[in-house]
Write a structure and sequence with these properties.
Layout: H1 5-27, H2 36-52, E1 76-78, E2 87-89, H3 92-106, E3 117-123, E4 126-133, E5 136-142, E6 148-150, H4 153-157, E7 173-182, H5 184-196, H6 205-213, H7 218-223, E8 226-235, H8 248-258, E9 267-269, H9 272-285, E10 293-300, H10 303-309, E11 319-323, E12 327-340, E13 345-357, E14 360-366, H11 370-376, E15 383-388, E16 395-399, E17 424-426, E18 433-435, H12 441-451, H13 464-472, H14 489-494, H15 500-513, E19 515-517, H16 518-524, H17 532-541, H18 545-550, H19 553-557, H20 564-575, H21 577-588, E20 592-594, E21 610-614, H22 622-631, E22 635-637, E23 646-649, H23 655-663, E24 666-669, H24 670-676
Parallel strand pairs: 2-11, 19-20, 21-22, 21-23, 23-24
Antiparallel strand pairs: 1-6, 3-9, 3-10, 4-5, 4-7, 7-8, 10-11, 12-13, 12-15, 13-14, 13-18, 15-16, 17-18
Bound molecules: adenosine monophosphate and zinc ion.
Zinc ion (ZN) binds near residues 340, 419 and 435.
Length: about 675
């Protein structure tokens, strides 16, 4: 059913409300009422309406969460209130000092304590400030030096649990403080992707969250599934809404009603034993959470008392972060084994007697590279200390040299690849040893796994195990073989643990994957040094693929994040006959690259306006006119009709001018038109 303009507008407003509401149910109440598919359908409907009427797009629309154009740099932002840090307690006695100081002062030294504390998780992420004006997200910023931070509004919008507009009852000005986090699962996924691409890994979820929120390209932030939890709020002095709420705990409750996710594991108590056991409970159970915490924060709950206690130069006197001990354990190193990545890089791994660290049983840790093995001087048979603190991947901290047995043995870098047996090379200046055999099974299988991964061809059902099996059976020698699997359908059905149904499912997933976004295609090829981010940058810069194939080192160097080594390597990759053949094969087997639509780059007075041109103009040709209109968000049209907004008239106009006059359409000279683009 087609809607007229006013019906469209009403539907659009309704959709924004509905989507906001379901976002709130999902992220704040944890109680979704509709399926993800239904949500996506509504979002698509809104998107279609906004495409038809771009002038109706508002900053708080749920469609604006995908991220806009990349920024050149971050602007500074002066916080309306100073963003403080927190005082730390590393051991129980330090916490008790804090507790006793406050309770003694307040109860006049008596034994009876009626002071309540809010006990919360100390989220291990990045603090941000969100400013809402009239219920709409106006600015988001990082802490910076506490007085001036960096503006990251577009990035913050991509975080789905940050409300873009608030539920009813909000004050006209609101500053909300909270933590941006990356859940462990997303962190592991991201690092795996980076490892396969040969990109540097993030040390822990906190670094990953910080690196993701401080991305100049908001699309990358949107890709990394970040979360937000609120833990503080400030309003203007005369605010009636929050001003009358007497406790921190209740303020948090009110924030939740307005649409902010807050911790479900906060507790309010005035009893010391309860506070001590809160700390103990979470120190022991931190691994049961989907995110990292590095302690608990204990805050005086009464706002009046908070105000009385005040601040010192760096932190409030009414709160303390009581940190957890980093989880460390000693164990015996049994072996150092080598794994081979898809770039042929050989990584040494420590294998040790199983130990339990803050809840998780671990028996392996990466040693990163052979420089690290040297630095630690770690030998098989040694007693080593392993640590897991914030870092999800355990690491070997040191060797207990005094406990070294006389038969401890050094492990040298391998001379031949542990998988294919070919000679191993060490590139000059790099710490990595590599197997350069392009047909090394570890390399081929690794590349294949990357090829089908999420931001590449995204083929569900073609997991590590199946790739290995198909490879051994000789079905998968090169990428294009994936798209030829359907010719082997009958054989596949006969395989052990396969059946008609699962084969059908796999083959249809493969068919579906043939249509692929341009940047994902580049990423899938698995070039050295080229991960997700560089793939995106290359796709933006070299359009279509033919341009990328021809790109030379100097052109490549103009792409953000591409240095000399990377540019050389990309150039060499596309000059290589075999690689060219591989790309041709893919295209021949039906792979179709989807190029990005031309984006609306600039919004202007002609955004969303339908515009026709007649005659000859000085500044532009007819084709350029179309491009110009599109670039500034307008819609170029050929013929004058009553839904055209403007006719631009050059020299020697044709009959279009008469028709436009007849229909009462606004007429612009080419100068007036160009002025509207300012
Ligand atoms: P620190 O970085 O050690 O100075 O600790 C202060 C930081 O702890 C703040 O800037 C916040 O980013 C963070 N934080 C995490 N959880 C909380 C919480 N529940 N309340 C206040 N701050 C928190
Ligand atoms: Zn090898």
């Amino acid at each position: 059913m087609a809607l007229n303009k006013s019906e469209s507008k009403a539907r659009l407003e309704e959709l924004k409300k509905i989507l906001n509401y379901h976002n709130y149910r999902y992220y704040v109440l944890d109680d979704p009422q509709i399926s993800d598919a239904e949500y996506d359908r509504l979002l698509k409907e809104l998107d279609a309406l906004e495409k038809a009427f771009p002038e109706w797009i508002t900053q708080d629309s749920p469609t604006q969460r995908v991220g806009g154009e990349p920024l050149k740099n971050f602007e500074n932002f002066t916080h309306p209130f100073k963003m403080y840090s927190l005082a730390n307690a590393l051991v129980e006695s330090e916490f008790l000092d804090f507790y006793q100081k406050i309770t003694k002062e307040q109860s006049g030294g008596g034994l009876f304590n009626s002071i309540s504390f809010s006990c919360e998780h100390k989220f291990d992420g990045l603090a941000i400030e969100l400013i809402y004006e009239d219920g709409k997200l106006a600015h988001a910023s990082t802490r910076g030096n506490g007085e001036i931070g960096e503006l990251i509004t577009t990035n913050a919008k991509t975080i789905k649990s940050i409300p873009l507009r608030l539920n009813e009852g909000f004050p006209s000005f609101l500053a909300v403080y909270g933590e941006v986090l990356m859940f462990r699962e997303e962190f592991l996924r991201l690092n795996q992707e980076r490892e396969e691409a040969g990109e540097p890994l993030f040390a822990n979820p906190r670094n990953a969250a910080a690196g993701s929120i401080r991305q100049l390209d908001p699309k990358i932030t949107a890709e990394r599934k970040l979360k937000f939890y609120a833990y503080g709020v400030k309003t203007s002095a005369d605010d009636k809404v929050f001003g009358s709420i007497p406790s921190h705990y209740e303020k948090m409750d009110f924030l939740k009603r307005l649409g902010f996710p807050v911790s479900k594991n906060a507790m309010r108590s005035g009893r010391l034993e309860e506070i001590l056991s809160y700390h103990k409970k979470w120190e022991e159970n931190r691994d049961s959470l989907p995110y990292e915490i590095d302690g608990v924060v204990i805050k005086v709950d009464s706002i009046a008392l908070q105000e009385e206690l005040g601040f010192d130069a760096k932190a409030p006197k009414w709160a303390i972060a009581w940190k957890f001990k980093p989880a460390r354990a000693q164990t015996k190193l049994e072996d150092i084994i080598f794994t081979v990545g898809r770039q042929g890089t050989i990584t040494p791994n420590a294998v040790f007697q199983m130990v339990s660290l803050s809840g998780a049983s671990i028996s392996r840790a990466t040693l990163h590279n052979f420089d690290e093995v040297e630095r630690l001087d770690v030998r098989i048979g040694d007693t080593i200390e392993v640590e897991r603190s914030g870092e999800v991947i355990p690491k070997v901290v040191r060797v207990i040299v005094e406990k070294r047995p006389s038969n401890a043995v050094k492990k040298d870098p391998p001379e031949s690849c542990p998988v294919c047996g070919e000679r191993v090379f060490r590139e000059e200046g790099l710490s990595a040893y590599r197997c350069l055999n392009a047909s090394c099974p570890a390399v081929v299988k690794g590349k294949m796994r990357h090829f089908v991964s999420r931001n590449a061809f995204n083929i569900e059902g073609l997991g590590e195990e199946i790739i290995s099996r198909f490879f051994e059976l000789g079905y998968l020698k090169s990428f294009a073989d994936i798209f030829r699997l359907k010719e082997k359908q009958d054989e596949l059905i006969e395989l052990d643990r396969f059946g008609e149904k699962s084969v059908q499912k796999l083959l249809s997933a493969i068919e579906k994957a043939k249509k692929i976004d341009y940047w994902c295609f580049i990423n899938a090829l698995g070039l050295d040094y080229v991960g997700e981010e560089t793939s995106r940058a290359l796709a933006d810069r070299f359009l279509p693929l033919a341009k990328l194939l021809e790109a030379k080192e100097p052109d490549l160097l103009t792409v953000g994040g591409v240095g000399e080594v990377v540019a050389k390597s990309i150039d060499a990759f596309f000059q290589n006959e075999e690689n060219r053949g591989l790309i041709d094969n893919l295209l021949e087997s039906g792979v179709e690259i989807i190029y990005p639509e031309k984006k609306i780059v600039i919004s202007s007075k002609i955004s969303g306006k339908k515009i026709v041109f007649t005659g000859k103009a000085e500044g532009f040709s007819r084709d350029e006119f179309g491009e110009l209109v599109r670039k500034y968000g307008g819609i170029p049209a050929e013929n004058v009709s009553k839904n055209v907004d403007y006719l631009v008239v050059g020299e020697n106009p044709g009959s279009k001018l008469d028709k436009a006059k007849e229909l009462g359409i606004k007429i612009l000279s080419d100068k007036e038109f160009q002025e509207m683009l300012q």
